[in-house]
Amino acid sequence: MADRYEPQIVVTGWASPPANQTWFRLPNPQFSAKSRAGFLLYFFPNMFRWRGLVRGAAAVNPHFAGLEILPLVLLRKLRFSPRLVISVHGADVTEAERSTGIARSLYAWMYAQADLVIACSDALANKVKQICPKAKLATVWNGVSGPPAISEERPMASPYLISVAAFVRKKGHDVLLNAFRQVASRLPDLSLVLLGGDGPEREHVTSLIALLGLGNRVRIQVNVPHDQIWNWVQHAECFVLASRDEPFGIAVLEAGMVRTPIVATRVGGIPEFLVDRLHGLLCEPEKPEALANSILQVLDHSDEARTRAAAFYQQAVGFTWTAAFGKYQTLLRLN
Question: Which residues contact 230 (CB under 8 A, 6 or more apart)?
Fold first, then answer.
């Protein structure tokens, strides 16, 4: 974007802003009583502040938008703001889905007032449609940055499966571990490596590993720098994602970029860009036995798996951020 325009980035959350970005703290009315009071007290002052921030812009594009942006939405309703495009990515829509009563109505109103709501997959767009049938929706798939130069040195000498997913319930680590127990009984030299951002499920995952007797077969690494994850994925026998839900599935695309065979669940955005048996193997969620069988199929028929991985690589390289921004330009009719 910076090659064509002068993007101004406004951070409305976090504890402090990144360098060269504007920090605008906004209370979310769904949180504590203090936040609700602050939201009401500063609603109109925040409208004026938003007015100053967006004056002269071609468009305003909140990402991961919650109810804290309602002052901006009202500005657009009153035509004191440029075009409003809300981009949704998953957790934001989940928060809207879980809301009830007035909050649910406010989410629906917010989506309806936007000139466009852009989702990162058709599956996520359909969820927004359930919340707000009047929303004007479009899908722009994510891009993939990378891979960087990857070391030829394996991070582990022995063969391993890899899963890259935050330690939250929707990622299905419990399903994966039960599937791996079946695989491990057949292949005593195979390990499972779990890489992911720390989250509320990590302790449960650690306990389940012990309960299943997999303590010496499963390795957990938390908050691994992204540039190191590529090396782990490239040298794995198979990339596995056992998600119960997946707004897009960018980790699957990244595995495709390094030609690693893929087994994933048929959820969310994944089947929109990965064709079963052409690019990888897809299974239904919550089915450890089916997941195990697919993993074994990859390991037992490595030539077929590598052929699928090569085909998926040709698909994955088309998912660039340049292509994603081009779609934004077309949708917004930007010069």
Answer: 146, 147, 148, 150, 254, 258
Residue with tokens 């690019």: 279
Q: Which of 197, 188, 201, 193 is nearest to 219 (CA)?
A: 193
Model confidence pLDDT, tens digit, residues 109-126: 999 999 999 999 999 999
- For the stretch 48-103, pLDDT in tens is 999 999 999 999 999 999 999 999 999 999 999 999 999 999 999 999 999 999 99
Domains of the chain: 10-142+323-332 (3.40.50.2000), 160-316 (3.40.50.2000)
Exposure of 261 in the CB half-sphere (CA atoms within 13 A):
22
Alpha-carbon distance values, 225 to 197, 206, 276 (Å): 10, 21, 30
In 152-188, which positions are buried (b, 16+ CB within 10 angstroms) versus exposed (e)? Answer: eeebeeeebbbbbbbbbebbbbbbbbbbbbebbeebe
Helix (H) / strand (E) element for 180: namely helix 173-186
Cα(304)–Cα(171) distance, rounded to whole angstroms?
27
pTM recorded for the entire structure: 0.92
